[in-house]
């Protein structure tokens, strides 16, 4: 792996970098904003890219929000976007599942969901039947009757053939037990994404992987992991390419996570990857000898690209 | 590793086996009972061992119950025992923590608990200050205020120096977030046990490791795992030895989990290990070539030892 090129402050290099690409895929949290705070200069930078005829796509692993929810967030922060520019792991999962279930003429067509409303909205948009999710009937303590019904199968829907795990702020023992019971009956194991942590309020909280898929994988044992539809999974890249008819060589992934965003771009053989240091990643992470992967370029912050307009 | 000796039906071999030992350490669930159903012949077998002057100790990774709670269960099932015969992972953890905290003159003397009342009872019995656990204030959804208070530290008790994870039927996002925040401030990471599953109602449910320590280890990253006080951790064996003044060479561990019970006995250099096939373990698990470990002896069920009295 060659050394990443540092672009901050180098106007000529930035112009050359921008000229290489038609499409920029942006991770959002830690790149464009942190929580509800949009980073200075981000809006101008996105506008500058649009003025130069570039397409910007917002590619997020956050599965709690649907594309419409995400657009609301972008709009509230004055970031120019349409719903078509948003690509989330819930949407990616819904497309993948709908295709998988259709192709297999799946005899068990329902999905048991661990997650929030964003997943439900996207599954519904692809006409996939689901249960679990935000159902208030599952937001409670487990009872002796539940133990019995999950053990003997009477508490399970025989039409469930797939478990989809995402970030669930209402995770509990009953949901984990139910998902585990479906997996033991042979349900396909999928995850919107397996991020270990969730950046919030300039700190870190449990991520999707830590609350649902990692615990379930540990129960199932044998090293079995879910098919993940978020970055860095190429299921997501294929879906993005299919929707936007990308020329991968003229596409650049911009992100703040080495093992998620940068790996996503490199595994997807994109023309470029750009790391920003406003989120999780530190320069040390990709400069150290045993770095998992390395971006092609890096800047301190997204708005450092803005000097191209000077 | 040599082949385990099969004792079922071999009266002479059983008598020889029993004569080798003064103390039998019994795992409980899957060995003596399943759920609330005591296996046939178990009571007679325990009595037979007592009549032969053997000591029986009940060594359980179940941290949701205190020793007193466990004694109630044993008594309800007519298994002869006193509270002194019970050794659980909650008790083992309390002893370990109390010693660790005392030795280090720990400036942060409080323990944040993920778990049920059993852990609290045992910590209290060792005069260890704790918070979390069954506190109703944590049995609720996370709020924006919680995110803020955990991120800026105002929601954390500055005296917490240790996080103890066990099985929690009321696990939720708020508890995991709080434990994660303490771990990030440098708290020591401990677990009563890290069992992946919990046998219940002749089926399997999420175990202690899957609901608390594995998710937290995944968030913390870098392969960091908690110090575990349950089987197969030798912290538990040391505590058992200290309490009962065991002669390890004349002690046998009886259990139904290869990686928990049998490993516990072998790592502890006990004189013997006996596997039973009434729980998780199948004969194939220790007969296959890449078996993690192998018991010295096995029987179909504990009561097969009972023919020694014939």
UniProtKB/TrEMBL annotation, chains A, B:
Its EC number is 3.1.3.41. It catalyses: 4-nitrophenyl phosphate + H2O = 4-nitrophenol + phosphate + H(+). Mg(2+) binds at residues 27, 29, 256. The active site is at 27 (proton donor), 29 (proton donor). InterPro entries: HAD-like_sf, HAD-SF_hydro_IIA, HAD_sf, PGP_euk. Keywords: Hydrolase, Magnesium, Metal-binding. One of its GO terms (molecular function) is phosphoglycolate phosphatase activity. The keyword Magnesium applies. It comes from the Eukaryota. GO terms for cellular component: cytoplasm. Substrate binds at residue 231. Its cofactor is Mg(2+). The keyword Hydrolase applies. It is an enzyme of class 3 (hydrolase). NCBIfam families: HAD-SF-IIA, PGP_euk. This is 4-nitrophenylphosphatase.
């Amino acid at each position: 792996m060659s050394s990443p090129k540092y672009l901050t402050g180098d106007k000529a290099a930035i112009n050359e970098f921008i000229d290489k690409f038609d499409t920029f895929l942006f991770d959002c949290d830690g790149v464009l904003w942190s929580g509800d705070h949009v980073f200075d200069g981000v809006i101008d930078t996105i506008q500058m890219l649009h003025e130069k005829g570039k397409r910007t796509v917002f590619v997020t692993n956050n599965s709690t929000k649907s594309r419409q929810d995400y657009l609301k967030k972008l709009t509230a922060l004055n970031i120019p976007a349409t719903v078509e520019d948003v690509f989330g792991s819930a949407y990616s999962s819904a497309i993948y599942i709908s295709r998988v279930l259709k192709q297999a003429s799946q005899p068990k067509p329902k999905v048991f969901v661990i997650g929030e409303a964003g997943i439900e909205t996207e599954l519904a948009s692809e006409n996939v039947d689901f249960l679990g999710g935000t159902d208030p009937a599952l937001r409670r303590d487990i009872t002796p009757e539940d133990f019995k019904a999950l053990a003997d199968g009477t508490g399970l829907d025989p039409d469930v053939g797939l478990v989809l795990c995402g970030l669930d702020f209402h995770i509990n023992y009953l949901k984990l037990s139910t998902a585990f019971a479906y997996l033991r009956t042979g349900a396909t194991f999928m995850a919107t994404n397996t991020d270990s942590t969730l950046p919030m309020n300039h700190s870190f909280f449990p991520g999707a992987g830590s609350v649902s898929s990692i615990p379930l994988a540990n129960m199932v044992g044998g090293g079995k992991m879910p098919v993940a539809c978020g970055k860095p999974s190429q299921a997501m890249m294929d879906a993005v390419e299919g929707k936007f008819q990308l020329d991968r060589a003229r596409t650049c992934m911009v992100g703040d996570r080495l093992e998620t965003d940068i790996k996503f771009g490199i595994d997807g053989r994109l023309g470029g990857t750009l790391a920003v240091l406003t989120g999780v990643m530190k320069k040390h992470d990709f400069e150290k000898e045993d770095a998992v992967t390395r971006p092609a370029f890096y800047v301190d912050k997204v708005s450092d690209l803005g000097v191209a307009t000077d």
